[in-house]
Design brief:
15 strands; alpha/beta; five-stranded mixed beta sheet; globular; D-Maltodextrin-Binding Protein, domain 2; 34% helix; 14 helices
Length: 354
């Protein structure tokens, strides 16, 4: 459904002719800068509303920007957010940045949302279960994301799709305009500004960080392994479960061992690390306390990290984001998250401008 675009999209050409940056156009059109970038790169097909907003900001017609022969995307189209795996035809649908995206169905932590439709031979067969504008899309590695999704739906009536992705991958999806919210947890007691610094370096300004919790990240060990210190683990463990590059858990492990790590088998979640250790092919791995304890493994804490949700400032007044903020600031949800092993919800709901 996505098609390659010409070297210079009409939106980019007209923006540059005015001497505007992508940030300038995003403010005038009332949409995230990541959406402007993705439209110009041909990765996003804007909705009719978004196309009109861009055309109005650039003082031209929708047809000039997106009409036949323009090299631009046709407003109102839908496209895969990422290519489905072979044989995967079920999808969820959501609106992000004024564009409708299809998300290949995958296992989401603690969630059991029915698919919105299926695609056969490029023909969509919709079930119409959810309005795409009623769905919030999140990418991150919080193992409690399923709990958040259930509480969010009960409190707001909106749906939350929480895709399991490491922090680097999650920010990449946010930058491309494919998700509303990305989770990251690089900040520590020693470097409390690292989450904000990471967002500035990767995405620039114009974003918000919404605190979920502080949590403990450390080393998961088999239940019968009685190693008591981190230094002993460093000496004794030869087979580590290694996370993907760009993840905070990978950085934590490399900081511990003092050298880059590589592996033929890469883990893409905290839960996958736990399963590798519990299954016996890895002697230890870095994950959060919740996953280790729920799996019956021993846990040696290494550091306390801040888990934040990042979203565009342009999304702050979106009803879906407002509902998320209200939930995280509620006493009931703070109490619930604070009861999870390794989670500290004292600063939940705090908002930081990047």
């Amino acid at each position: 459904m996505s098609a390659a675009r010409s070297m210079q999209h009409p939106v980019a050409a007209r923006r540059r002719a005015r001497g505007w940056s992508q940030d300038d156009l995003s403010v005038r059109a009332g949409m995230p800068r990541s959406s402007v970038s993705a439209i110009e790169a041909g990765r996003l097909t804007p909705s009719v509303t978004a196309a009109l907003a861009v055309a109005q900001a650039l003082d031209c017609s929708v047809e000039e920007l997106f009409g036949p022969g323009s090299g631009g995307a046709q407003p109102g189209e839908v496209a895969w957010a990422w290519e489905p795996l072979l044989g995967k035809d079920r999808y969820w649908e959501a609106e992000v940045g004024g564009c409708r995206w299809l998300y290949p169905v995958e296992t989401l932590a603690g969630s059991s949302w029915a698919h919105d439709g299926f695609c056969r031979e490029k023909v969509l067969n919709e079930r119409g279960a959810w309005d795409p504008r009623q769905t919030l899309v999140l990418a991150g590695c919080d193992p409690a994301a399923g709990l958040l999704a259930a509480e969010y739906a009960a409190a707001s009536g909106f749906r939350l799709l929480a895709f399991t992705r490491g922090g680097g991958a999650a920010l990449g999806l946010l930058q491309q305009g494919l998700v509303h919210v990305a989770a990251l947890h690089r900040s520590t007691k020693e470097e409390p500004e690292l989450n904000a610094q990471t967002v500035r370096e990767k995405l620039g300004g114009g974003y918000r960080l919404l605190r979920i919790a502080e949590w403990q990240e450390g080393i998961a060990l088999p239940a019968l392994n009685h190693t008591r210190t981190i230094s002993a683990c460093k000496r004794q463990v030869r087979r580590w479960a290694v996370r993907e590059p760009g993840s905070a858990a990978r950085e934590c492990l490399e900081d511990l061992l003092g050298e880059p790590q590589s592996s033929r088998h890469v883990m893409f979640s905290h839960q996958a690390v736990v399963e590798a250790v519990r299954g016996g092919w890895a002697e230890a791995g870095v994950c959060v306390r919740l996953c280790a304890e729920d799996a019956g493994l021993r846990f040696l804490p290494v550091r306390k990290e801040s888990l934040d949700l990042c979203f565009s400032a342009a999304m702050e007044r979106d009803p879906r984001v407002q509902a998320l903020i209200r939930l995280l600031r509620s006493q009931a949800h703070r109490r619930l998250i604070g009861e999870l092993p390794g989670y500290d919800a004292a600063h939940m709901g705090e908002l930081i401008t990047v």
